[in-house]
Amino acid sequence: MINYIWFTMVLLGIAIGIFTGNGELISKAIIDSASSTTDLMLGLMGVMCFWCGTMKVAEKSGLTDKLANLLKPFLRILFKGAARDDKALGAIVMNLTANMFGLSNAATPFGIKAMEEMDKLNDKKEMATNDMALFLVINAACIQLVPSTVISIRAAEGSSNPGIIIIPATIATGVAALVGVICCKILQRYF
């Protein structure tokens, strides 16, 4: 449905522009926006390659493993069922670690693996477990220690200080994750 709405808006905009004698401005705007989009995407690719490479170096150097070891005791308390399975807990830790560094594209395979491993522990296959629901909430509101995607966008757009958002992003995502965990734990008692 949304595709029809967008198509209608674009078509009406072009038709009105042509009828008002602004057809040349419309074609110039289309070309300029395509050019600026290409510039943004190329800038993002470079910065994302940098951050993905940094994450690989952190992984190879053992930094992510150290962070994972710091997280495991807390996650064993939060995830009662998944704490019994090292594969599930390992996938959860790797997903959250990648998300903390703002690398959601690298975190996705770990998230899928974590859900698959938790589903193996699930007695009722047609219904998500409390651990699965909690994982989705924590994953959606994951604490961002280094919001690399947002920093990349800010850098690609020429920000004078793209990293200034690190502290506000960490606070906002930390509060969101805490509220999400509290709500999940309260709702687990009733559902």
Automatic annotation (TrEMBL):
InterPro entries listed in its UniProt record: Gate_dom (IPR011642)
Pfam families in the cross-refs: Gate (PF07670)
Transmembrane segments: 6-26, 38-58, 88-112, 133-153, 165-187
Residue span, Nucleoside transporter/FeoB GTPase Gate domain: 42-154
Keywords (A to Z) from UniProt: Membrane, Transmembrane, Transmembrane helix
Superkingdom to which the source organism belongs: Bacteria
Protein name: Spore maturation protein A
Natural source organism: Clostridium polyendosporum
Designated gene of the protein: spmA
